[in-house]
Amino acid sequence: MHKILTLNNIALAGLDRLPRDNYEVASEITHPDAILLRSYKMHDMEIPPTVKAIGRAGAGVNNIPVERMTQQGVVVFNAPGANSNAVKELVLAGLLMASRNIAQAWEFAKGLSGDDSEINKAVEAGKKSFVGFELPGRTLGVVGLGAIGVRVANAAHALGMRVIGYDPTITVRSAWQLSSDIQQALSVDDLVSKCDFITFHVPLVDSTRHMINAERLKCMKKHSVLLNFARSGIIDDEAAVAALDSGHLYAYICDFPSNLLKDHPRCITLPHLGASTTEAEENCAVMVADQIRSYLEDGNITNSVNFPDITLPRNGGHRIAVVNSNVPNMLGQISTELADSNLNIIDMLNRSRDNVAVTLIDVDRAPDEATLERIAGIAGVLSVRCLGCSG
Ligand SMILES: NC(=O)c1ccc[n+]([C@@H]2O[C@H](COP(=O)([O-])OP(=O)(O)OC[C@H]3O[C@@H](n4cnc5c(N)ncnc54)[C@H](O)[C@@H]3O)[C@@H](O)[C@H]2O)c1
Ligand SMILES: O=C(O)[C@H](O)COP(=O)(O)O
């Protein structure tokens, strides 16, 4: 029985991928084999030593201590692209909310009183305060052209906007998906000075923290709009508020409310809603549950943020899955132990990524505990599992 601890609500469509005759899934469970979560902050959590895998039903993994998990041989998965359409749609809404002053106008309308003829009079007198502008011909800068950024760039272009993108590590896959009409910026500074709107779709890491600060805000065009549907911390919010107050920035649309932002008249904050659609929640949950199941049952890895991809089809043998440091002579030592136990290797695959390596070995009969213990005792081995050995 595999035990799965959930730290957030995970869509049922995903949990249903884990058959209950073989999986126990609960928000409170001892000795879990794997953890499923969304935005729960794991950094201060004591992670049980039984955990072999963590599945983030979403994109960002800054809430997970990925480096510590790698050192402990724990694979971390996410669900790349599974919520990208949901975020794209909310960014498009953000562009329109800013350009047409929708939130402010709605507040005004909610505050109207009197009979309908008085309301109508107040509407006609008041609407001039909310005059907006149109998107075609305006320039949108997209920083980060991954799953979300590419969709946002293409959709904004389809609305008639001129779009400039910046991503120094764009993947070949994203480059293929990006409309050839999207222009390339040479740097964030190059992009910032040319745009009426700038939207960010990068992960929160040291190099992206405060990508927009007071200095860069000064280089932005007067009356431009910032959108942050990536993470709190990517924009220096204090600097953004100062720019809103001085009138340099027209609006700030942000998915991460704070005391500083939530009541500002030119800032619209939403409660981290980017991925909150039924479709995105299901896509993420299904993708990550399938990945966790494949890892627990077969040792295969797809869409990990810290381990190599590895897939070895099952051929009926007994499978040993080893996670080890990526150093010389690991395979030699492991196969020596198997030979000493008179086990014949039917199939084997080894993959590495940075400092970690994964080896899947199918052997002709179930290894005994002593063999597994000897492999676990090899210096550099982080974990050893025998998959399907008891049957
Ligand atoms: N608001 C929400 O609910 C919500 C939903 C999904 C994702 N997100 C956030 O959005 C981020 C992006 O998601 P995604 O699915 O597009 O991820 P992704 O990995 O597909 O794309 C990220 C892109 O950013 C690029 N990048 C990294 N550093 C960069 C830099 N310094 N300058 C420019 N580009 C850089 C990468 O090359 C990559 O192409 C996630 O990490 C997450 O934090 C938020
Ligand atoms: O990185 C993500 O996928 C988003 O921030 C979504 O977070 P959520 O799953 O908590 O809505």
TrEMBL record:
Keywords recorded for this protein, A-Z: NAD, Oxidoreductase
The ACT domain, residue ranges: 319-389
GO molecular function ontology, one term from the record: phosphoglycerate dehydrogenase activity
Enzyme Commission code: 1.1.1.399, 1.1.1.95
Entry keyword annotation includes NAD: yes
Record keyword ATP-binding present: no
Top-level division of the source organism's lineage: Bacteria
Pathway(s) per entry: Amino-acid biosynthesis; L-serine biosynthesis; L-serine from 3-phospho-D-glycerate: step 1/3
Enzyme class per UniProt: oxidoreductase
Catalytic reaction annotation: (2R)-3-phosphoglycerate + NAD(+) = 3-phosphooxypyruvate + NADH + H(+); (R)-2-hydroxyglutarate + NAD(+) = 2-oxoglutarate + NADH + H(+)
PROSITE patterns noted in UniProt: ACT, D_2_HYDROXYACID_DH_1, D_2_HYDROXYACID_DH_2
Signal peptide: none
Similarity-based family: Belongs to the D-isomer specific 2-hydroxyacid dehydrogenase family.
Described function: Catalyzes the reversible oxidation of 3-phospho-D-glycerate to 3-phosphonooxypyruvate, the first step of the phosphorylated L-serine biosynthesis pathway. Also catalyzes the reversible oxidation of 2-hydroxyglutarate to 2-oxoglutarate.
Protein name, UniProt field: D-3-phosphoglycerate dehydrogenase
Species the sequence originates in: Sedimenticola thiotaurini
